[in-house]
């Protein structure tokens, strides 16, 4: 079980900051997903920052759409998108309302509810792989588009909440290029992770998808 101090939800002001401040500060925080099957808690070990109109790699770079609308809303809300026709990925919106920046949750350590996570991640060879990558993280937690727009800062009963946890000391935080980002956005070293943590996903550069002939 998570220690009592970790159960304090992060306030909205935590997310109402520039995305490059929020992203590394999310490492070590606890994400709690509550479902009818039971709760799962995850300690964040890897994230990526996306800076809206200043970032060619961001979904919001070209403006507001039905897909990215939540990114423009209040900070502390959940932005979920569907990718490659197969997977969901989860982000936490940050910065002032209308700014459209968010942090992609890339990997974490399941610290509670591993039994439930295993039923959703049958291909995981061990518990370190349960949430090792953004699609695996979302799958392990049972995240889909139904959670898009969820307020992760509320103290009311909610399906997803971000708790204080234990922040990672700056000396243990590493950063580098974001995984799979192409074009001008590929140069930004906006992926942050906990040094030497076995749940962090491996870096992969962008590989263009080949069109079927």
TrEMBL record:
GO molecular function list: hydrolase activity, acting on glycosyl bonds
EC number, UniProt record: 3.2.2.-
Enzyme class (EC, first level): hydrolase
CDD domains in the cross-refs: AAG
Similarity field: Belongs to the DNA glycosylase MPG family.
Highest taxon above the source species: Bacteria
Stored InterPro entries: Formyl_transferase-like_C_sf, MPG, MPG_sf
Protein's recorded name: Putative 3-methyladenine DNA glycosylase
Keywords: DNA damage, DNA repair, Glycosidase, Hydrolase
């Amino acid at each position: 079980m998570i220690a009592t101090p970790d159960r304090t939800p992060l306030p909205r002001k935590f997310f109402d900051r520039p995305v490059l401040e929020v992203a590394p500060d999310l490492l070590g925080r606890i994400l709690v997903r509550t479902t009818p099957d039971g709760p799962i808690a995850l300690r964040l070990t890897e994230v990526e920052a996306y800076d809206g109109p200043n970032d060619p790699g961001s979904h919001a770079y070209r403006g507001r759409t039905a897909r990215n609308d939540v990114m423009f809303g209040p900070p502390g809300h959940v932005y979920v998108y569907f990718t490659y026709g197969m997977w969901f990925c989860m982000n936490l919106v940050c910065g002032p309302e209308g700014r459209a920046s968010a942090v992609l949750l890339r990997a974490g350590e399941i610290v509670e509810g591993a039994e439930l996570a295993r039923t959703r991640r049958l291909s995981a060879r061990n518990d370190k792989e349960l949430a090792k990558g953004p699609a695996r993280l979302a799958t392990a937690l049972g995240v889909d588009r139904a959670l898009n727009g969820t307020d992760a800062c509320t103290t009311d009963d909610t399906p997803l909440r971000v708790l204080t946890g234990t922040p990672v000391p700056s000396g243990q935080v590493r950063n580098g290029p974001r995984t799979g980002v192409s074009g001008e956005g590929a140069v930004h070293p906006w992926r942050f992770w906990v040094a030497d943590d076995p749940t962090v996903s491996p870096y992969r550069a962008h590989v263009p998808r080949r069109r079927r002939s």
